[in-house]
Structure formats: C-alpha cells, structure tokens
Specification:
Mean pLDDT: 95
Shape: globular
Number of domains: 1
Largest sheet: 6 strands, mixed
Strand content: 15-25%
Length: 236
C-alpha cells in the first residue's frame, strides 16, 4: 500500500489531485498546529480584472493555539451564499454551471468543521472527474505516534503504524525527509513530480497554480483527469 499524507486544503490546485491519483490511500493529516492564512481555508481563483484573488472560508477560531481538526467555520450559511457569488465572473466559462453545482453540494449543511469542508471538497472533485479517493482522517485513527515528532518524522511514523509499503510526497518537500529513516522501516520513499496543466481561459490571461475550481470551469472532467494523471514518481 502506498500512502500519501497531507494536511486538508481548500479546493487545492490540480497537482494536489495528482498526489491523490498516485496513492492507494490518502491520510488527511489534521493533527498538527493550525496555521492561520494558510491553504487550509483559502485558495486562489482568477480575478475579474487581472491576475488572481483569494477565495476564503472565514473561521471563527483562526489561531496558532488550536490543532487543525479544531478549526471551525465562522458562518456556514453565509459561506454557502458568498462563495458562489465570488465566482460569477466565470459565467462565460463553458463549465461554470456544473462547477457551481459541485461547490453548492460541498457547502450544503451546517457542519462547522473546516476539515470536514476540505475533505468534502476533495471527495466531490474526485467524484466529479472519476478519480478514486480512498481516505482516512488521522485524528480519528487513534495511532500510537511519537509525542513531539519533527516535520519529517510524522510520515514514517504514520506509515509504520498503518503498515504501508511506500510513501509518496510532492517533490517540493523532498528536503524534509531522511531516506535512511524510511529504509530502516522497510518503506519505499517516493516523490511526485506533476506536469504543468495549461488551458484556454477565454477573455482572461492564464494564471498557473490556481484552485482546481478554475481548471473545472474551463475544462471537461475527462480533460482534468488526464492532466492530473500526468506525473512522474521519483524514488529517493
């Protein structure tokens, strides 16, 4: 079993879904300290005039003094109204309506958990494009983990606890991990290099690295899935 272990992000960029595609199981890493103004509760979309703007889910308790799984949305009912309105400049995009319908489904209900919102977003996008998504939430697993692990220790400890044969991480995080630590545990360490995804954005300048919502506005699900599955795995 190949694991990927990542913090829950708010409608992340397509490369995040490439990691989902590469993993047999996804661990939602919601146990570390929450980081305010992070990718957990916001992401970037096209600005109606130029470049990009933030799309944000405001929190009631944004603080470094809480764990990620303790973060709570400020007002789910208002969020349900506000977020689609902030995307109306995409109306000329060919897949605007199904993308807004996807967003509406994710925002439905009154659950205040930010992790819950982020995971619903990941699951809804994966379902929309036909990408299998098997996940577990770390805080709910009752794992026997080190009390104060360093940044590079969480992954091998979780992999050992779950009996994983391999761990895959984005290539940009390569410096965090000690290959010898994984080798001693008999775990293959791999890094994912996702290929750039460029596409036509009629009337707008293309901006790379935006939320998956942007890609879904301009492309059919099959095209997005093909782009997400375009990556390379590099062994440490």
């Amino acid at each position: 079993m190949r694991l990927a272990i990542m913090q829950p992000y708010f409608f992340p960029y397509p490369g995040h879904f490439s990691l989902i595609a590469a993993a047999d199981e996804w661990i939602v890493f919601d146990m570390p300290q929450y980081t305010p103004r992070s990718w957990m509760n916001r992401n970037r979309v096209l600005h109606p005039a130029a470049d990009w703007k933030w799309l944000t889910a405001p929190l009631a308790n944004s603080s470094i003094h809480i764990r990620a799984h303790e973060a709570r949305l400020l007002d789910p009912d208002r969020l349900r109204c506000d977020l689609p309105r902030q995307l109306t400049h995409y109306r000329r995009a060919p897949y605007y309506e199904p993308t807004i319908a996807l967003l509406d489904r994710v925002l439905a209900g009154s659950d205040t958990s930010l992790v819950g919102l982020d995971v619903r977003g990941l699951a809804a996008v994966c379902d929309h494009i036909g990408l299998p998504f098997r996940y577990r939430i770390c805080s709910q697993l009752d794992l026997d983990l080190p009390e104060h692990p360093g940044p590079g220790e969480w992954a091998p400890a979780i992999c050992e606890a779950l009996g994983a044969a391999a761990y895959v991480n984005p290539l940009g995080g390569r410096h965090l991990f000690d290959p010898a630590r994984f080798a001693r545990a008999g775990i293959a360490l791999e890094f994912l290099d996702s290929h750039p995804f460029t596409y036509e954005t009629r009337g707008f300048g293309f901006t790379p690295g935006l939320s998956i919502l942007d890609a879904l506005m301009w492309n059919p699900p099959g095209t997005v899935l093909d782009a997400i599955r375009s990556y390379e795995l590099i062994r440490a």
